[in-house]
Amino acid sequence: MHVTARLQAVFGPATQGDTDAPVVHKHDDFEMASEEDLTHFVVETDAEGHHYAVRDDPGPTTTDYG
């Protein structure tokens, strides 16, 4: 018996819900804090086209001994 078949036997078939209903996206406190943290990053692109994030103001790190 396949894993999904076993899960379906235990929990029943997956329900799709109303596929025509709009998706409701709610912002909670955690998500707003995460978005605030992400504002401190800038997306950089190197010569080969790779994208990576860099902090605007990196500040002290654990390797700064000064």
Structural write-up:
The structure is a single chain. The protein is an alpha+beta fold. Helices cover 29% and strands 15% of the residues. It is built from two helices and two strands; from the N terminus they run H-H-E-E. It has helices spanning 3-11, 29-38, and strands at residues 41-45, 51-55. Strands 1-2 form a two-stranded antiparallel sheet. Strand 1 (41-45) and strand 2 form a beta hairpin. It is elongated. It starts with a helix and ends in an 11-residue tail after the last strand.
Search tags:
alpha+beta, two-stranded antiparallel sheet, 66 residues
Summary, kept brief:
The protein is α+β, with helices and mostly antiparallel strands and 66 residues long. It has helices at residues 3-11, 29-38, and strands at residues 41-45, 51-55.
Would you spell out the secondary-structure blueprint of this structure?
Blueprint: H1 3-11, H2 29-38, E1 41-45, E2 51-55
Antiparallel strand pairs: 1-2
